[in-house]
Specification:
With 153 residues, the chain is α+β, with helices and mostly antiparallel strands. Helix content is 35%, strand content 32%.
């Protein structure tokens, strides 16, 4: 029985307003999937972009080299192709080119068949005052929970 792998991009929801989410497959080599199964990956600084042929790639995704790999080991920060339906790709490409939205990865996980999947989101960048609003809402929620807890005891 394999353990659950769920690598999250915690900054994505803070820096971006999420509009739409998609689940995409990843094109990986043998040592890359072995490193992901050991939770040796990071998507915190990564983003997605289209190439000239309309294919979607994830850039800056860090997958550490496999410890038992030979000279056939993979490059840690290589661009990796994302697999989506043609209709989803066309919709995403249109949104990115026309409205200036961004595609950011949210989390990397293994599905029940053991394949690596990544949730990507069509997102709009937040301004500084939006981030302050998010921090203020989070602090208010914490203080309200604290008050509720002391009131119940």
């Amino acid at each position: 029985m394999q353990k659950k792998i769920n690598i999250k991009n915690k900054r994505a929801r803070f820096d971006f307003e999420i509009l739409d989410t998609y689940t995409a497959g990843l094109v990986l080599s043998g040592t890359e999937i072995k490193s992901i199964r050991l939770s040796k990956a990071s998507i915190s600084e990564s983003f997605c972009e289209f190439n000239d042929r309309g294919e979607l790639f994830i850039i800056n995704m860090q997958i550490d080299e496999y410890s038992h790999g030979t000279h056939y080991n993979h490059a840690p920060k290589a661009a990796r192709k994302l697999l989506l339906n043609r209709g989803e790709l066309k919709k995403l490409e249109k949104e990115v080119k026309n409205t200036g939205l961004t595609i950011v990865p949210l989390n990397l996980f293994l599905n029940e068949r053991g394949l690596a999947k990544i949730n990507v989101a069509l997102a709009k960048g937040k301004k500084l005052f939006d981030k302050r609003e998010t921090i203020k809402d989070r602090d208010n929620k914490k203080s309200l929970d604290r008050i509720k807890k002391s009131f119940n005891n």
